[in-house]
Amino acid sequence: MLAGLALIAIVLWDAFETVLLPRTVTRRVRLAGFYFRGSWKPWAHLARMFDSDNRRERFLAIYGPLSLIGLLTVWAVGLIVSFAALHWSAGSRLVTPDGRAGFTDDLYMSGTTFFTLGLGDLHPVAAVARFLTVIEAGMGFGLLAIVIAYFPVLYQSFSRREIRLTLLDAWAGSPPSGAEVLRRLGEAGELKALDQFLRDWEYWCSEVLESHISYPVVAYFRSQHQRQSWVAALAAVLDVSALVIAGIEGLPTWQAHITFAMARHAAVDLTQVLRASPDVAATRLRPEDLEQLHRQLENAGVHLNRSPEAKARLAALRQSYEPFVVGLGRLLIMPVPAWSRVRPMRDNWETAPKRDGGPHL
User: Fold this and answer.
1) What's the CA gap between 147 and 149, in Å, rounded?
2) Per-domain boundaries in the chain
């Protein structure tokens, strides 16, 4: 009886924290946390065995929606077993076709009650058994109703995240690159549009932080387009903000400062929420890469500050966020993009379909 009551409390509290509580749950001992960590690791291990990037992405895309069904199944099984244990502890006071009731009958009775089937081949005969039946039927109906209402909220959060990601393709390329944003604006003579770009992405980072803290499972949902991910977009926004803060001739830095603050906040907090391990040894921009980046941007009319102080400032900014975005990318198998492109690549909007239905790059 005590075990049954404890398991009911664990399942209901876990469902409350996952579905209804709109804030971070820092407690490590948590049913949903064990479920997602325990199911994601083998799924990610299998995904890494695919040689084709397209097949790997299709396989990983299944995990997000499937994990929701799996979590609901875990909750349902937990409650069914719990109420079966309570029926059994009360003496299995059920009427059965053969006149004898055991734990398997309690389990069957609990399952049909939870899903409100009401088949009638078993029914309770004692006050305690009737009370348990009524409580379980109401609990099962309420849990299913809450979870069904929970699904649209998740997909709305996912949709809002992906709309901005799709827009990033024309600004930063596929995969997105912070330096590519500056290069394209510089070649077009539209560097004045950078402030609005950073302002829009400040709000995007805020929305991602809020939605992924409230519903961490959304972080596992993959983008609908190849070479795009929310981790890559977050890294690109941090990169372009860091470059502007370090110093670009003729560009103000205030908007870059506040966008950087919001984006880094999202990276650090989501690393903690998803239990990702920051990669303190991450180095995405070697000295020779930085020199090449300077030349690329100068050819586009964008002049970075080359002073030792500016390079030291850029290195400090990078160290404050790169370990977190690299850790997130490694956990979720969402590669963090390079700072700049070493060769020309077509954007997603420039691709054309192959005859076999695959993307033509």
Assistant:
1) 5
2) 2-148, 153-344
pLDDT single digits (tens) 302-315: 989 888 999 999 99
Q: How many helices (H) and strands (E) does the chain have?
A: 11, 4
Closest Cα partner for 263 from 312, 338, 199, 316? 199
* Residue of 75, 32, 302, 5 whose CA lies nearest to 180: 302
Instruction: Output the CA torsion 22→28→32→37 (10° steps).
Output: 120
Q: Which fold has domain 2-148?
A: Helix Hairpins (1.10.287)
The one-letter code for the residue type at 192 is K
Q: Are 81 and 7 in contact (CB under 8 A)?
A: yes
pTM of the predicted model as reported, rounded to 2 decimal places: 0.85
Residues 6+ positions from 149 with CB-CB distance below 8 Å: none
Contact 211, 153 (CB under 8 A): no
Evaluate the CA torsion angle 222, 193, 190, 246 in order and state its sign.
Answer: negative
